[in-house]
Design a protein that fits this description.
- There is one protein chain.
- With about 260 residues, the chain is mainly alpha-helical.
- The chain has ten helices and no strands.
- Helix 2 crosses helix 10 and helix 3 packs antiparallel against helix 8.
- The mean pLDDT is about 85.
Length: about 260
């Protein structure tokens, strides 16, 4: 009679194993392949300049002050539009999530207006508000407003109702139920919505600046493309990438601060 052998456990369930440094190695390898391809003439530098050319263009823009001028203008528009859209979206989303009348009136309107591409409204906003900063900020605010509304009332809907009923059974005032139970329970979903709206705001910022702006990252990229200055064009794309990473880092810190109770 043969001996019983232990059966190998195969129920790992596709557990994700961290691979430290894998992303860095892949990124460096991709950049090196790009550099080699341009240097050996496999790719024309007119259509895709080498990474070193992009870094040199970025450095020249930083030293000349052009970089900071465009970033400063873009940040003011993005911050103003995102703040307005977020505050308005939080207010309406909270009302829709809590009060039945607000949901009956507001939800159909949000559902009808949300699918409209907000950049398509920019020409109309220029007619109403002029070609200055107001129309660009309003475009970003509209693009941020509707996703914030949806994320807020969806997060409130996701709060366990038994926790709300428990608070009510202990005769907590309605304001305390909202402040101590509903808001903390909905906060993770709301902060996740902030990540989406930050990306939407950045996309609309570039689009709005390409249509009617003298300064800003979008206007700089458009101008560089028209002049076939592809090294500066890609330097502008790097600006956007760095800006997006900084925004993501800021949201990570905000999330850790507000959700440390978890």
């Amino acid at each position: 009679m043969s001996e019983a052998r232990p059966v190998t456990f195969r129920g790992g369930g596709f557990v994700v194993v961290p691979k430290k440094g894998a992303a860095l190695v892949a990124f460096v390898g991709l950049i090196a392949l790009w550099e080699v391809s341009v240097r050996f003439g496999w790719i024309s530098p007119i259509f895709l300049p080498s990474p070193t050319s992009v870094v040199e263009a970025f450095w020249e823009l930083a030293v000349s002050g052009t970089l900071w001028l465009h970033i400063g203008q873009s940040l003011k528009r993005l911050l103003g539009g995102w703040t307005l859209g977020t505050v308005g979206g939080l207010a309406l989303g909270f009302a829709i999530g809590v009060w039945s009348l607000s949901r009956a009136v507001g939800l159909p309107l949000v559902s009808a207006l949300f699918p409209i591409p907000k950049i398509a409204l920019l020409p109309l906003l220029i007619l109403w508000l002029g070609i200055g900063e107001t129309s660009k900020v309003a475009t970003i605010a509209l693009g941020v407003f509707f996703p914030t509304v949806i994320a807020t009332f969806s997060a409130i809907d996701g709060v366990p109702r038994n926790l709300i009923r428990m608070g009510q059974s202990f005769n907590l005032p309605a304001a305390d139920v909202l402040r101590k139970i509903v808001l903390p329970g909905a906060l993770p979903g709301i902060l996740a919505g902030f990540r989406i709206t930050a990306s939407i705001g950045l996309i609309l910022l570039v689009s709005a600046e390409m249509i009617g702006a003298e300064h800003g990252i979008g206007a700089f990229i458009l101008q560089a493309g028209n002049l076939m200055q592809t090294d500066q064009l890609l330097a502008g794309v790097v600006m956007l990438s760095v800006l997006g990473l900084l925004i993501g880092t800021g949201l990570n810190r905000l999330e850790r601060r507000l959700l440390r109770w978890r």
